[in-house]
Automatic annotation (TrEMBL), chain A:
Belongs to the ParA family. MinD subfamily. Keywords: ATP-binding, Cell cycle, Cell division, Nucleotide-binding, Septation. ATPase required for the correct placement of the division site. Cell division inhibitors MinC and MinD act in concert to form an inhibitor capable of blocking formation of the polar Z ring septums. Rapidly oscillates between the poles of the cell to destabilize FtsZ filaments that have formed before they mature into polar Z rings. GO terms for biological process: division septum assembly; negative regulation of cell division. Pfam families: CbiA. This is Septum site-determining protein MinD. One of its GO terms (cellular component) is cytoplasmic side of plasma membrane. ATP binds at residues 11-18.
UniProtKB/TrEMBL annotation, chain B:
GO terms for biological process: cell division; regulation of division septum assembly. NCBIfam families: minE. This is Cell division topological specificity factor. It holds the Pfam family MinE. The keyword Lipoprotein does not apply. The keyword Cell cycle applies. Keywords: Cell cycle, Cell division. HAMAP family: MinE. Prevents the cell division inhibition by proteins MinC and MinD at internal division sites while permitting inhibition at polar sites. This ensures cell division at the proper site by restricting the formation of a division septum at the midpoint of the long axis of the cell. It comes from the Bacteria. Belongs to the MinE family.
Length: 268, 93
């Protein structure tokens, strides 16, 4: 029996879909797990695009729920990664097309056959959120180091706890070590301190994420991507491995190197 | 020393400002108190205190904030700032 993990955040644009795509691909690629990713963002589907599978969609989640097709028919097998599947969202319907009970049934059906069922949750805390968490046993919260994102993450953590989720795990996305060093971005400890949850991973801001999304190839498979490395670490932590948080030290700037050369202390 | 204060904002890193603002926002979010709720508290405080002192109602401020309990722990605190015009001595019996 597989586990169902929902990836959520409250705020939009913090990287839920990218995180889902990378964790899903990571688990299939590195750990040879059988994984299905569900795009629960009905009406605004995107996981298919991030995964580069948009041309392969025939049926979607709503078709399955409404009995238009069988579940197997709607699952898209990713030919690049063995054991990786996508259940796309419907693009032309709205969130009320599915109920929490139906989502729960769907997740329970999928966990029979897959090691991991990852649910990419839509932004917000309304119906779409309720649907996405309905069938999940674990939750991953994605936040960026910004006031608005952390605030929404806190709200979502509250809602998840109220819904009976134990210990949601946090991924801090798009952190910029240079800004943290300058004191212009909240660091890992600041955010953990405020949200009081366990840390699952820290993903540095990385241009290669944009490039990999352009191509529809998850960064986790990109050996040269720092964010990809961070997602590989997250994948291993989900599998129970004890992987230390990647050091986010930045190269000293020219000015700092000069100061060091003259034996001056680096400016804090 | 005052001229340092002029540039004081630069001394506090923006992440510390973010952190402090966030903490205060979350005190409100987590307590889930509406402005109406605070207004209710405010009017009741006025009712009770008015028996004993004349207060400046416009200046009365009730807010939810954070307070250091000791070195480590900070707790949410309801702070009422009540400007007093005059103590009513009749009430002393």
């Amino acid at each position: 029996m597989g586990q169902v993990i929902v990836i959520t955040s409250g705020k939009g644009g913090v990287g839920k879909t990218t995180t889902t795509a990378n964790i899903g691909t990571g688990l299939a690629l590195l750990k040879h797990r059988k994984v299905v990713m569900i795009d629960a963002d009905i009406g605004l589907r995107n996981l298919d695009v991030v995964m580069g599978l948009e041309n392969r969609i025939v049926y979607d989640l709503v078709d399955v729920v409404q009995g238009v097709c069988r579940l197997k028919q709607a699952l898209i097998r990713d030919k690049r990664f063995e054991n990786l599947y996508l259940l796309p969202a419907a693009q032309t319907k709205d969130k009320t097309a599915v109920s929490p009970e139906q989502m729960k049934d769907l997740c329970d059906q999928l966990r029979e056959e897959f090691d991991y069922v990852l649910v990419d949750c839509p932004a917000g805390i309304e119906q779409g959120f309720k649907n996405a968490i309905a069938g999940a046993d674990k939750a991953i919260i994605v936040s960026t180091p910004e006031v608005s994102a952390v605030r929404d993450a806190d709200r979502v953590i509250g809602l998840l706890e109220a819904a009976g989720f134990e210990e949601p795990k946090l991924i801090i996305n798009r952190i910029r070590p240079d800004m943290v060093k300058r004191g212009d971005m909240m660091d890992i400890d600041d955010i953990i301190d405020i949200l009081a949850v366990d840390l699952l991973g820290v993903i540095p801001e990385d241009e290669r994420i944009v490039i990999s999304t352009n191509r529809g190839e998850p960064a986790v498979a990109d050996e040269n991507s720092k964010a990809g490395q961070a997602y590989r670490n997250v994948t291993r932590r989900i599998e129970g491995e004890d992987v230390p948080i990647m050091s986010l030290d930045v190269e000293p700037t020219l000015m700092e190197r000069l100061r060091m050369l003259f034996g001056l202390k680096p400016r804090k | 020393m005052d001229f340092l204060k002029l540039f004081g904002r630069e001394d506090v890193s923006s992440k510390d400002i973010a952190k402090e603002r966030l903490r205060l926002i979350l005190v409100h979010d987590r307590a889930n108190v509406s402005p109406q709720f605070l207004e209710m508290i405010k009017s009741q405080i006025i009712n009770i205190i008015s028996d004993y002192v004349d207060i400046e109602e416009e200046g009365l401020e009730v807010k939810l904030t954070r307070m250091k309990k000791d070195e480590e722990i900070t707790v949410p605190a309801l702070v009422a700032n009540i400007p007093i015009k005059r103590i009513k001595h009749v009430a002393r019996a």
